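Ticket reopened. Same input as before:
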Amino acid sequence: MEDVTFDSILINAIFKSVWSERALEREKAEFNDVLDSEAGAGSSKKIRPTSANANALKLSCELLRLFVTEAIQRAAAIAESEGTDQIEATHLESILPQLLLDF
Amino acid sequence: MTLHKFLGKKETPRPQLEDPKIGKNEQDCFVGDEGASCIEVDAEAVKTWIYPVNIPLRDYQFAITKSALFSNTLVALPTGLGKTLIAAVVMYNYFRWFPRGKIVFTAPSRPLVMQQIEACHNIVGIPQEWTIDMTGQLSPAKRACFWKTKRVFFVTPQVLEKDIHSGKCLVKYLVCLVIDEAHRAMGNYSYCEVVRELMAVPVQLRILALTATPGAKRQTVQQVIDNLHISNLEYRNENDPDVISYVHKRKIELIQVAMGQDAVEINQQLLEVIRPIVGRLSTIGVLKNRDYRTLSPCELLEIREKYRQAPPQDLSSVNNGDVEGYFGVLISLYYIHKLLSSHGIRPAHEMLERKLKQGFFAKYVSKNEVLLKARMSMQQNLSHGAPSPKLSKMLEILREHFKANDPQSSRVIIFSNYRESVRDIMDALANIGEPIRATQFIGQSSGKTMKGQSQKVQQAVLQKFRSGAYNVIVATSIGEEGLDIMEVDLVVAFDANVSPLRMIQRMGRTGRKHDGQVVVLACEGTELKGYLRKQAKSKAISKHMRNGGINSFTFHPSPRMIPHVFKPEVQFVELSIEKFVSREKKVRGDSIQIHASIGKLTAAENNILAKYFPTTGENTWKPSLVAFPYFQTYPSRTHKVNHSCRAIMLIDLMQRLQGQTSFLGNSKTSIPQDGPCIEASNASDLNKIREVRSDNKSHSRHTVGSNAVSVSCLKLDSSRLGIQTEDFVDLTAPDNIVGEQRSPNTSCIKKDDLPSSSFIDLDENKEKTCEFEETVPDTPIANTVMSDEGHSNSGTPDHSQFKTSLLLDDVFNNDINESQCSPRLTSLIKSGVVPESPIDERTDFLPGLSRSQLIIRHCKPLVHHQTEQQITSSLGTNEEVVIDNAADVNNVPIDPSNNETQTLLFERKSRAIRRVHVFSSPVVEEAQNLLADITNRSFSEDSPLCGGNVADSVKPAHRFKRLRKADDGRRHRKEKSRKDHGKGRRKSMHNVRVFIDDEAEVSSEADVSNDEDGEDDSSSDSFIDDRMNPTATTQSRASGIDMMAIYRRSLLSQIPVEGGTNVSATFSPDYVSSMTIISENEDSSGSIPRHIQTRQIEQTNQSASKSLQSVEGNQITSEATPSSSFPAENTTQMRSRKRKLSFHRFGFPSANLEQQFALQSNEEPMDACAAKDILCDDHIFDNIDLDELEAQAASLLKQNSDFSAQKQGAHTIPQSHLQNPHLSNPSFDLGI
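Engineering reply: fixed in the latest deploy. New output:
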């Protein structure tokens, strides 16, 4: 079980999608700024998309794995004590604040 | 230690060498030794030297190792006989002996370094944390760091030289230097520099030089010995007796190849070009009558050197330049000639082309007809593509070899001196195809015509060669030295005319593990002659080296490294060697692996990604962090990651907040009335202030209200409502509506209704007074409780008085009913718990007493509650009075705020209680009995616990609105439980008033629950919570707790609905929960760890232990049944269902249900109390609805699933809405 972790490719893809989204937003914002300030200095500095190297990805995968397993285990504990064998959103919500603080 | 060394130096018996000269030399160098002794010896380790027996012992290795340990040794051992083992063992022992000493192993190339570090590790297993391989690739800064931290270094000599120069290498700590391929230690090579530097320092260290080919000549060997300060030569020949058994047979085959016809022709032409030039040089006298055909470039170089050093006197300066030019041309031509003969036309042609572009050569020969002709014929030959005879011979050999051997396991190395011919060979091999998979292996320097291989590529090539991806390597001289490739069983020397050293090295590539074959391809003529000559030379040198070369070479002294007192004994040890982990490979391998795989997602995966990570839109579900605040009041169970300090902080904070939530809810509701000041004090830190203020105001209002109440019952009601409106600004509207709604229903009903409730309150109050009568002796806290109660009573009595007068009948009826029940309960309690006679006595006249009390209170409606307390207490038993005073004393400073706050809460709660009581009054007696039983049981269990603590509990624990310490809380809780007992007893006594009993039960339950809660919350329970619980009447307590516990639900339901109903609504769940708690208490008996308990409390309800349900059912019946004949069980089911619902969905349905129930119950009591009265439409409607509900519940009974329950909830909600159209549907905003 310990060996099973997230596919680093998948994580990378997710990261990239988020980053590109951010980059787009930033670009938009900057574009607006440029419009507002009328500076128009030209887009000399290109926003390079954020990237993660292999080891960083590996680490991220591990962290995510820990996070998800912990979340599930805790939610499962709640669900169990409620007598259900299905984790529901409410269970997750009930453990979420502490979980987030733990990580 | 220096002394030891000194002594050791003086005598220095060399184990191997007895040469007197050495002894003398040692005396000489001894002087220099003294300063360099900064390395300590491990006295224990130095008693032995370890020889590993992991590998079968070989005598020659053992002997050489032994001598190498104690003197600087040059080991000349044929290839493949395990020189590395000797080095490793020596290093390992020095590693042991000198705990701080540093050991350096040098090998001339990076691949060799990498190879040797692994080999050494596998032999002796020096811990890898001490070893490091350093090549030029490592930055100097890093190297400096490693020099400090590591102890065993595998380096290239260049790196070592640089680091010694720059002082990064801590030369003082060096104890052992191993030099691999020591035959390179010639001239200015780094090896020599390194040793020179070290000797100059001076550093005492052991030098171990390893080579297969110490030198081609005696002089070169002597040079090596001098350069490396060798004092001992260990030479073994393949034919030596102790070696021969380990030498694999190596068949050396010399194949003579005739030169191709074209090549011969071209050769002739070249010689034609050469001849006149040689002749001219001869005439000058530089060349001494040599046959121009036997000259070689090397000889010419030598001659030129001579000429340059001592040019003949008669030459003019002009001629001098010419001579230089001729030499250059000759050298080039001879080179081409040699290439042509040994490698074929193509390399020669390329060489010629290159040379023709260079100024010097072009100037002298570009117009030479013969050369041009030769060039032409070369080009022709190349275009025709006839392979050279050597090449075709080689291919033939290869084919045969792979026919005889498995192409998978067999490996072949082809050596060639020139890259051009390597390429030729590669081209030729490519034409063959399977089974030959060939690759080239060349140096990294980029020539003009072809690029070199980087070291990375070289490594990769070797790796693939080992694994079998390639089975033929075509290598230049780079592949000759040291590469340990076990499986090579054929070596083809494409050119024979190389130095014997190199030939030996080439041969050394095979025959390492099993028999090997060497094929030397030699062209007839010069090449063959050269080869034979060189072989003869190498034989001659081996003669010199016999017997340690004592007769032929002069040796140098070597220092004794270990003090003389130690005489290491050999110890054969089987070493356990951990698996070697390559430092670089690991990182590189991973990164390569991952990089290669990045960016490959299938379309399906991309779809999933797009689904869960939408690029735009807010349609993603976001989990709420605030939905379950109660869950945050205790640490959730963790799996592997424990709670961080922040999470614990959150829990702590939430516990405080939750503790105040019930209170906060009130204060919040009262915020609008209080105005800006309270709003300003919203910050949680200012809770105290806020509470006080709000309490004050509410208090004042309350008093006002109570005054108003005294005017008339109607007014009373309205005033109450008014108070409520003040308290719950949000709810005022619904309240009023309700009030109005009711008011049309004939005043008498109201009168009946309200009075009854008030009367019940009165009873309740009475009960309370009794309670505190009992509790007072126990604790000062109880006093405050009392005072609070008294205060709260002050509000209630007003009504009760009026009402009592109005509705004596009802009361009497009730009393009668209760009295009927009482005997059983009392008996039960008496048997179970400590019998309390005075209370029993009181029971009879309690109604009257209470009334009188109330009257008295009424007389002083506005008197300070303390006085009230006293009065009430005076009415009560004597004990109280005494303690009351004390309590007063205690309370005086704190009370005002305390009581006020509590009164506020209490007000509301008492009101609620009243209602509840009203509902519960007509409850089925059986159910009550059951409840009573339960409570009694719980009490009986609690009593032993509490009894001991009574004494302790007599402490003024009035840290108001502060976090109580754990023990305080516990004490408090115990006191409470005490109180509970009292109540329980009283209950039993006061059975007459069934509803009171009920209430008492509730209270007791609440208390119990409170206890549990308290325990659960442990130390961090906020004081206010505890406070409220004891002070407010039982139900208020319960509500308080439950409001804490079920904050979401209760608060939700509370806020939107009218005050009274709200409270009652909240109560319903409270009841259940408290009941469950009790049952749990019984079950768990406190042994279960805290938070588990709490969880259970919260959740066991859902998990639906049947006993709990039944209890609930009873409870519910007690609440809701009054009006009707439907079976209690149905309701229980309903209740439990509802319960579940409320747990599962904290949203509207549950709230609605509760609300509905509350309403029902509200109205039911009215029905019950005023049975004679005409039921208003609403009531009837309610009843009908209830029936319907019951029916539904009954039907649902059969279906046990939660789902159905939820449905039920869904059903009931609309009904409730129908029922109470007037009720403004509260906006169920989870405002948390």
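Residues 39-44 of chain A have pLDDT under 50 and may be disordered. Chain A touches chain B at residues 8-10, 12-14, 17-18, 21, 53-55, 57-58, 66, 69-70, 73-74, 77-78, 81-83, 89-90, 92-103 (CB under 8 Å). Please confirm and we'll close it.
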